[in-house]
Design brief:
The structure is a single chain. This protein has 4 domains: 167 residues, no CATH class; 141 residues, no CATH class; 40 residues; 135 residues, Immunoglobulin-like (Sandwich), CATH 2.60.40. The chain is 52% helix and 12% strand. Strands 1, 2, 4, 7 and 8 form a 5-stranded antiparallel sheet that branches. The protein has a 5-stranded mixed sheet with strand order 3-10-9-5-6. The longest helix has 25 residues. About 11% of the residues have low confidence.
């Protein structure tokens, strides 16, 4: 770092600024920080005198190079495009910028009493005043680096601290102060804990300072909007909170010692040896797979959590067994229990299952991929149950039971059953002919982000229903899921009623992203009326021009009526 700077010519390298400027910086640092012995300082002075005598203009050249470095540092630290306004600041860029400011102070100190550098000293003094003003107005940007800055403050004499505002201003506040300041009221409990909110006087002081640093204030407002969207998403979709909990819990809970590492997948796959007896039991297993299971990708975990959440939100879902993982999960969703209780309950059941399966031994080796396929199959096999808990008999089984009661003779019973099945089959075929098969659309949502927003690794705003507001310049993606393969048609209708076709073609079941993952659409500058995104799906291919004609006429409802077998979903939003 700059506090231990050595002139480069001592290492047979070109000077950083110039030979004499580098020597003066070292002398200034030694004098200001009380470093170096008297003989060392004397040797440096002799070298400096020789360098000045050999090239009197060398010092001025070095001063110009340093001046340009300081200007670049100010732009990097205080400019509107400062890297400090971005997440994941480059520590090397920060160190280089602060080193240039340090060298300005050290060169000023080294020039004190040097008649040859009097003119340069006056120029540097003016530059130092501007640096002081610029840094003072933008020092809050450095708060996330307070740990490093406090280490540097500890190296400076108390009487010289005023000359290094880039280390001292706002250095005594928490490194996450800006993050807390950006957090909306509803997010503080999630982001920093209710007991860790900023003191009122510090919050007010930071807000006053931000009035002079508009780029930083703008950045914090954008983060606040993004965080508010994240909080809304977590509140509306408990599955996102479950996914967060899964990541945290799997770092805390170790695999039981009785389960060998090479047998983990087999134990997980055979944690249950019989099929689930009810939908509640099946969803409890899916929850334990998603929260505790090994080798599962985040996307699969989230799919499982969404399925479990939907089951628990169903008003017709049966009451859960008290104390069971699913009952505790339901209480967690209502805010009645915390993360620790939920994860402890779930892992206690899961670890016991793992240990029992490992002890029993399962023979054939199981790969992680096989376990993943096993979990996917479990998620795709719902159980139809009666109120008594027995599997719901098929229609044919019910028919046989009824005929057994009414017709005691087997031959008559079989003939009657055959006739009824034939009649019913004809009725079904007629119904299928009149009502074309429909391809259900699972979900439709828009992911919206600002001009600098990210759709990977970031937290865009999620829009799932009509009535939201989007701003000019915002970027958005269209994401929809199909429950089975179908022909999909995606349209965007603007304020004038003009319809653009975003996609038309056959797609598989699952989630689809438009325009593509990592890319997005951008709203134009023209504001005003409502915009609409529509997704249509059909098992059978439709004429695109027929559907577009109905959309141009604003007859969204008519599509499903005139085109049997078409599933329609839409999201309308205002544009400001």
């Amino acid at each position: 770092m700059s506090m231990s700077y050595e002139p480069r010519q001592f290492q047979d390298q070109p000077p950083r600024y110039s030979r004499t400027a580098d020597l003066l910086i070292v002398l200034g640092r030694m004098g200001l920080l009380g470093q170096g012995s008297a003989p060392e300082r004397e040797d440096l002075r002799h070298g400096l005198d020789a360098a000045l005598a050999a090239d009197p203009a060398d010092l001025a050249r070095g001063g110009e190079v340093l001046g340009r470095a300081v200007e670049e540092a100010l732009a990097s630290l205080c400019g509107d495009e400062s890297f400090l306004l971005q997440d994941g600041t480059d520590e090397y860029l920060l160190a280089e910028a602060l080193a240039s400011l340090d060298h300005l102070v050290f060169l000023e100190e080294g020039l004190a009493g040097q008649e040859a550098g009097k003119a340069l000293g006056e120029t540097l003094a003016e530059l130092a005043q501007r640096v002081l003003a610029e840094v003072t107005g933008h020092a809050a940007r450095l708060i996330p680096h307070n740990g490093f800055r406090l280490d540097m403050v500890a190296m400076l004499p108390a009487g010289q601290l005023h000359r290094f505002p880039w280390y001292t201003l706002w250095a005594d506040v928490p490194e996450d102060a800006l993050e807390r300041l950006a957090a909306p009221e509803s997010a503080r409990a999630h982001a920093v804990g209710a007991d860790e909110d900023l003191p009122a006087d510090l919050r007010m002081a930071l807000l006053q300072d931000l009035s002079a640093d508009r780029p930083l204030a703008r950045e914090l407002r954008m983060r606040r909007r993004i965080m508010a969207g994240v909080v809304r998403a977590f509140a509306q979709h408990k599955s996102l909170g479950m996914l967060r909990l899964a990541r945290e819990a799997n770092e805390r809970f170790a695999v039981p010692d009785s389960v060998p590492e090479d047998g983990l997948a087999a134990a997980a796959m055979h944690a249950w040896t019989r099929p689930p007896a009810s939908e509640g039991e099946r969803h409890e297993r899916l929850f334990l797979y998603a929260l505790c299971g090994p080798f599962l990708e985040a996307r699969l975990r989230l799919d499982l959590f969404e399925q479990v959440e939907a089951f628990l939100r169903d008003p017709d879902a049966a009451e859960q067994r008290p104390g069971s993982p699913l009952a505790v999960l339901a209480a967690w969703m209502r805010g009645e229990v915390g993360d620790d209780q939920l994860s402890a309950t779930a892992f206690a059941v899961w670890d016991a299952r793992l240990a029992r399966a490992a002890q029993a031994g399962q023979g054939a080796e199981v790969t992680a991929r096989q376990f993943q396929d096993h979990v996917r199959a479990a998620a795709a096999q719902p159980i139809r149950k009666t109120e008594a808990g027995e599997p719901t008999p098929s229609f044919i089984a019910k028919l046989r039971q009824t005929l057994a009661t009414l017709l005691p003779r087997p031959a008559l019973r079989a003939a009657t059953a055959g006739l009824l099945v034939a009649v019913l089959a004809g009725s079904v075929l007629l119904t299928m002919h009149l009502s074309a098969p429909t391809a259900p659309i699972g979900t439709l949502r828009l992911l919206a982000a600002g001009e600098e927003g990210q759709f990977r690794g970031g937290a865009p705003r999620i829009i799932e229903q009509s009535g939201e507001v989007m701003l000019s310049g915002e970027r958005f993606q269209v994401r929809f899921t199909l429950e089975e393969p179908a022909h999909a048609y995606v349209f965007f209708r603007d304020a004038q009623g003009e319809v653009s076709t975003l996609f038309a073609g056959r797609v598989e079941a699952g989630e689809h992203v438009l325009p593509s993952p990592g890319e997005s659409y951008v709203l134009d500058e023209e504001t005003g009326s409502e915009r609409v995104v529509l997704v249509l799906a059909a098992k059978e291919q439709k004429k695109l021009e027929d559907i577009e004609a109905l959309l141009h006429g604003g007859e969204v409802e008519a599509i499903a009526e005139r085109h049997r077998g078409v599933s329609v979903r839409e999201i309308a939003f205002s544009h400001k």
